[in-house]
Write a structure and sequence with these properties.
The protein has helices spanning about 1-25, 45-55, 60-75, 105-110, 115-135, and strands at about 30-35, 80-90, 95-100. By secondary structure, it is α+β, with helices and mostly antiparallel strands. It has one domain (about 30-135). The longest helix is centred in the N-terminal third of the chain and has 26 residues, at about 1-25.
Length: about 140
């Protein structure tokens, strides 16, 4: 009887450890939606390109806000996550999906104030480059 109990306890502990690292990523779908008409326009001139550039500079900030909100709601989160960043046309006729990875190092850094200050600029520039490469 004691061996069965010990075996059961080990299985629960193993599941618990696995759950901390990947269960959140498996169950929860991290998704952020923004509306944009500019992202779907063809860039005919420099003004169109500038408009897209100005708007797209806000997207990494929105992703950062979303990640911080998720970290506050789930302080156990410690592994890499992927945010499904969805850009929708205002009339919902078109959409662009970009899976944006958030590295484990950023998640750890954003949990501490010191780490946040040291890493948020790198996060914003990495995220911006990642989005623009896939747009």
């Amino acid at each position: 009887m004691n061996i069965k109990f010990l075996f059961f306890l080990i299985i629960i502990a193993q599941f618990s450890f696995t759950q901390e690292n990947s269960f959140d990523n498996f169950l929860k779908k991290y998704e952020l939606r923004v509306n944009s008409d500019i992202a779907f326009k063809s860039s005919n001139n420099e003004i169109d390109e500038l408009n897209l550039s100005f708007e797209s500079q806000q997207w990494p900030i929105e992703i950062l806000k979303y990640v911080i909100k998720e970290l506050r709601e789930n302080p156990v989160l410690s592994s890499k996550i992927t945010i499904q960043f969805i850009i929708e046309h205002s009339n919902k006729s078109k959409m662009i999906k970009i899976p944006v990875p958030v590295k484990e190092e950023y998640i750890g850094a954003f949990k501490s104030e010191v780490g946040f200050r040291d890493n948020y600029i790198n996060f914003l520039s990495d995220t911006y480059e990642f989005i623009m490469e896939r747009l």
